[in-house]
Amino acid sequence: MRFENEKIHSKVITRKIEVGGLTKSQLIQKLQQYSILMNEYAEKLLADDKFTTSDTKYNLQTVELTAGNLGFPDGATTDQLFKKANELGLELCPLELGPYLRLEYLDQPEGYSGNSLQRNEAPSGSITIASETLSEDADFPKGFYLRRINGVLWLRGYNVDYLHVWNPNDHFIFCQT
Protein backbone atom coordinates (compact mmCIF):
# COMPACT_ATOMS: atom_id res chain seq x y z
CA MET A 1 0.00 0.00 0.00
CA ARG A 2 1.35 3.43 -0.87
CA PHE A 3 1.04 6.34 1.56
CA GLU A 4 -1.66 8.77 0.54
CA ASN A 5 -2.30 12.14 2.20
CA GLU A 6 -6.05 11.44 2.26
CA LYS A 7 -5.50 8.70 4.83
CA ILE A 8 -4.03 11.23 7.25
CA HIS A 9 -6.51 13.57 8.88
CA SER A 10 -4.39 16.70 8.98
CA LYS A 11 -1.45 18.53 7.46
CA VAL A 12 1.68 16.55 6.64
CA ILE A 13 5.01 17.93 5.48
CA THR A 14 7.04 16.07 2.88
CA ARG A 15 10.71 16.63 2.15
CA LYS A 16 13.21 15.10 -0.25
CA ILE A 17 16.54 14.63 1.52
CA GLU A 18 19.88 13.55 0.06
CA VAL A 19 21.61 11.09 2.39
CA GLY A 20 25.01 9.41 2.23
CA GLY A 21 28.35 10.12 0.63
CA LEU A 22 30.13 11.21 3.82
CA THR A 23 32.11 9.18 6.31
CA LYS A 24 31.05 9.34 9.94
CA SER A 25 33.88 11.77 10.76
CA GLN A 26 33.06 13.98 7.75
CA LEU A 27 29.40 14.04 8.85
CA ILE A 28 30.35 15.09 12.39
CA GLN A 29 32.71 17.73 10.97
CA LYS A 30 29.91 19.11 8.80
CA LEU A 31 27.55 19.32 11.80
CA GLN A 32 30.25 21.31 13.64
CA GLN A 33 30.80 23.51 10.59
CA TYR A 34 27.11 24.50 10.73
CA SER A 35 27.35 25.12 14.52
CA ILE A 36 24.85 22.34 15.18
CA LEU A 37 24.97 21.27 18.81
CA MET A 38 24.50 17.71 20.04
CA ASN A 39 23.55 16.30 23.41
CA GLU A 40 25.34 13.36 25.02
CA TYR A 41 22.82 10.86 23.57
CA ALA A 42 23.39 12.08 19.99
CA GLU A 43 27.14 11.88 20.48
CA LYS A 44 26.74 8.34 21.85
CA LEU A 45 24.67 7.28 18.82
CA LEU A 46 27.15 8.73 16.33
CA ALA A 47 30.13 7.18 18.14
CA ASP A 48 28.63 3.68 18.23
CA ASP A 49 30.10 1.14 15.79
CA LYS A 50 26.55 0.14 14.77
CA PHE A 51 25.86 3.66 13.47
CA THR A 52 26.94 3.42 9.86
CA THR A 53 26.92 5.81 6.94
CA SER A 54 26.40 5.03 3.29
CA ASP A 55 29.30 5.61 0.90
CA THR A 56 26.79 6.29 -1.86
CA LYS A 57 24.43 9.26 -1.98
CA TYR A 58 20.73 8.45 -2.22
CA ASN A 59 17.46 10.37 -1.88
CA LEU A 60 14.73 9.77 0.68
CA GLN A 61 11.20 11.13 0.59
CA THR A 62 10.20 11.93 4.17
CA VAL A 63 6.83 12.60 5.73
CA GLU A 64 6.45 14.67 8.90
CA LEU A 65 3.26 14.12 10.88
CA THR A 66 2.00 13.90 14.45
CA ALA A 67 0.84 10.98 16.56
CA GLY A 68 -2.62 12.55 16.29
CA ASN A 69 -2.34 12.57 12.47
CA LEU A 70 -1.78 8.82 12.68
CA GLY A 71 -5.12 8.42 14.47
CA PHE A 72 -4.03 8.57 18.11
CA PRO A 73 -5.90 11.52 19.71
CA ASP A 74 -4.82 10.34 23.18
CA GLY A 75 -1.25 9.50 22.20
CA ALA A 76 0.38 6.11 21.62
CA THR A 77 3.46 4.03 22.36
CA THR A 78 6.36 3.90 19.92
CA ASP A 79 5.32 0.41 18.77
CA GLN A 80 1.72 1.54 18.14
CA LEU A 81 2.90 4.58 16.15
CA PHE A 82 5.36 2.59 14.06
CA LYS A 83 2.81 -0.16 13.36
CA LYS A 84 0.14 2.33 12.24
CA ALA A 85 2.61 4.20 10.03
CA ASN A 86 3.63 0.88 8.46
CA GLU A 87 -0.06 0.07 7.78
CA LEU A 88 -0.26 3.40 5.92
CA GLY A 89 2.73 2.48 3.75
CA LEU A 90 5.33 4.51 5.67
CA GLU A 91 8.67 3.09 6.73
CA LEU A 92 11.15 3.66 9.50
CA CYS A 93 14.04 5.87 8.47
CA PRO A 94 17.67 4.81 8.39
CA LEU A 95 19.35 6.20 11.50
CA GLU A 96 21.83 8.15 9.37
CA LEU A 97 18.93 10.34 8.15
CA GLY A 98 19.02 12.27 11.46
CA PRO A 99 22.28 14.17 10.88
CA TYR A 100 21.56 14.71 7.17
CA LEU A 101 18.06 16.04 7.85
CA ARG A 102 19.48 18.35 10.53
CA LEU A 103 21.95 19.72 7.97
CA GLU A 104 19.14 20.28 5.42
CA TYR A 105 16.46 21.64 7.74
CA LEU A 106 18.21 24.82 8.87
CA ASP A 107 15.05 26.95 9.08
CA GLN A 108 13.27 24.86 11.71
CA PRO A 109 10.90 27.05 13.76
CA GLU A 110 11.89 28.00 17.28
CA GLY A 111 10.78 25.65 20.08
CA TYR A 112 9.80 26.76 23.57
CA SER A 113 12.86 26.86 25.81
CA GLY A 114 11.15 27.29 29.18
CA ASN A 115 11.51 24.88 32.07
CA SER A 116 7.86 23.83 32.18
CA LEU A 117 8.77 20.71 30.21
CA GLN A 118 7.34 17.59 31.76
CA ARG A 119 9.75 14.74 32.31
CA ASN A 120 9.46 11.95 29.69
CA GLU A 121 7.84 14.25 27.17
CA ALA A 122 9.06 15.33 23.74
CA PRO A 123 10.28 18.95 23.87
CA SER A 124 8.20 21.70 22.30
CA GLY A 125 8.98 22.16 18.63
CA SER A 126 10.98 18.94 18.36
CA ILE A 127 10.73 16.42 15.51
CA THR A 128 11.57 12.78 16.24
CA ILE A 129 13.07 10.67 13.46
CA ALA A 130 11.26 7.31 13.42
CA SER A 131 14.05 4.75 13.06
CA GLU A 132 15.17 1.30 14.14
CA THR A 133 17.03 1.21 17.43
CA LEU A 134 20.68 0.16 17.55
CA SER A 135 20.44 -1.48 20.97
CA GLU A 136 17.79 -2.88 23.29
CA ASP A 137 19.92 -1.75 26.25
CA ALA A 138 17.63 0.40 28.43
CA ASP A 139 20.38 3.01 28.88
CA PHE A 140 21.23 3.34 25.19
CA PRO A 141 19.62 6.14 23.11
CA LYS A 142 16.79 5.04 20.81
CA GLY A 143 17.18 7.62 18.06
CA PHE A 144 17.50 11.27 17.05
CA TYR A 145 15.29 14.32 17.20
CA LEU A 146 15.72 17.82 15.80
CA ARG A 147 15.19 21.01 17.72
CA ARG A 148 15.88 24.74 17.55
CA ILE A 149 16.22 26.70 20.81
CA ASN A 150 17.24 30.36 21.08
CA GLY A 151 18.33 30.29 17.44
CA VAL A 152 20.61 27.28 17.99
CA LEU A 153 20.06 24.11 15.94
CA TRP A 154 20.33 20.80 17.77
CA LEU A 155 20.68 17.18 16.78
CA ARG A 156 19.69 15.37 19.92
CA GLY A 157 19.38 11.75 20.91
CA TYR A 158 16.54 10.48 23.07
CA ASN A 159 15.78 7.47 25.22
CA VAL A 160 12.33 6.04 25.96
CA ASP A 161 11.13 2.60 27.00
CA TYR A 162 8.42 0.54 25.31
CA LEU A 163 5.79 1.83 27.78
CA HIS A 164 6.35 5.50 26.90
CA VAL A 165 3.23 7.18 25.49
CA TRP A 166 3.91 9.94 22.98
CA ASN A 167 1.53 12.92 23.00
CA PRO A 168 -0.86 13.42 20.06
CA ASN A 169 0.99 16.64 19.11
CA ASP A 170 4.46 15.03 19.02
CA HIS A 171 5.99 15.27 15.53
CA PHE A 172 7.64 12.34 13.73
CA ILE A 173 9.50 11.84 10.47
CA PHE A 174 8.88 8.64 8.50
CA CYS A 175 10.07 7.65 5.03
CA GLN A 176 7.81 7.05 2.06
CA THR A 177 8.32 3.87 0.09
Q: What does this entry look like structurally?
A:
With 177 residues, the chain is of the alpha+beta class. The protein has one domain. 20% of the residues lie in helices and 27% in strands. The protein contains four helices and ten strands. The protein has helices spanning 24-33, 40-47, 78-87, 97-104, and strands spanning 13-19, 37-38, 58-66, 76-77, 90-91, 127-129, 143-149, 152-158, 165-166, 171-176. Strand 7 (143-149) and strand 8 form a beta hairpin. The longest helix has 10 residues, at 24-33. The radius of gyration is 15 Å and the shape is globular.
Features:
4 helices; 177 residues; alpha+beta; single chain; two-stranded antiparallel sheet; disordered N terminus; 10 strands; eight-stranded mixed β-sheet
